[in-house]
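User: I'm putting together a teaching handout on how multi-component assemblies are represented. Below are the sequence lines for each component of a complex, exactly as they appear in our records. Could you produce the 3D structure of the whole assembly as structure tokens, so the students can see both representations side by side? Please keep the chain order the same as the input.
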Amino acid sequence: MDVRLPVNFTAAHRAAVLRFVQGRRMNDAQHATQFEAFDMLHRATVGNDTFTTFYERVVEEPCADSFIAALLDASDPEVAAVALRREVNQRIPALLRQTGCLNLYQVPQFYLLAYCLYWWYAFTVGYTFEVTILRDLTISGIAYDAHDLRDRQARRSPFDLVVLGFTGDIKTSTYFLHVVRSQALPADFYITRLYGRLGGVQMLVVFLKRPAWNAIDGETLPATLTALPSVLPTVAEIEHGGQALVVAAYEDWKARVLKCQRREEKRE
Amino acid sequence: MSKKIQTPEDLSPEELEQCVANFVARDGPGPGDLAADPFFALWERFEAERREQVIELEQDIVGGEIVLSVAPTSPDVLRVERNEIRLEDGRRIVLRLRRPHQQVAATQ
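Assistant: Of course. Below is the structure of the complete assembly, with chains in the same order as your input.
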């Protein structure tokens, strides 16, 4: 199988791919190069496919439905995801060999294998997070409409859920940055997860466009992106791509949404 | 002297196979979640890159009409269809050639 990498795929990008597979720690600059490398590999080709179309056909299509179904049936999606992901990770080299890629551990086919491992990991972590958040919203009593995760077409809908008439997406922080890097933010709000500096404490954060925030109201503190880690969980306001984005802690956002929905219920 | 960075090209097939086996065994760390500091620092960096981005378009005239395309050297961040540029917020910029009689009228 003939694999062609983008012409401007540099030694730094190649090193970033290896660093990902080796699981080595990265500084900010190396993280940025890794994002760029895996974005660029979308345009690499294998035979008549791009890496993207090849990955979707050979890895995601045969593995996604059963992964998501098992996740939805699991009592603890986060725990179940590890074994489910590993089972597919082990199969990926065999799935690629079936298409005629017989030199996976040699360059350039190794880049195709690394690409598939990266995006399968992103897919599984992303849907695990989404299932976890949707369950939490249900338990918290938030009214929302979500796409049917068991349905492949529905999964491709532009937004994951609608709350108070606003469109939302649930994204891991890494995937969120892939979106930020390549396009403007199309949804009205984004739920994402970060880790704090001390002891890796999980931080759930919601980014909202102004109209989505105005609907639930509240004070905000102007901030810059780099100052946000020290400002949170205070509700802050930043500028992104020329528009205001409000940043709130997930629990705070949920409490405000719930209050708003109860008020609306009483009115009805 | 700068240290040479290691790329997959520097490793033998056996070493690369071992890397993948280790990756599967440890289940990452992969593209899951980031700590807040690098997350916001990277976002800021991508914003700065975006502000400095120049997107070059190329124009052909086909059948008397403008046909645009994004230059191969430019980032693939803009949707272009024939004579239309589709902005990320949904708006469209449409380019039209001025016909000779329009040019005359405009100068009168």
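A couple of points students might notice: Chain A has two domains: 3-134, 141-267. The longest strand of chain A covers residues 202-209.
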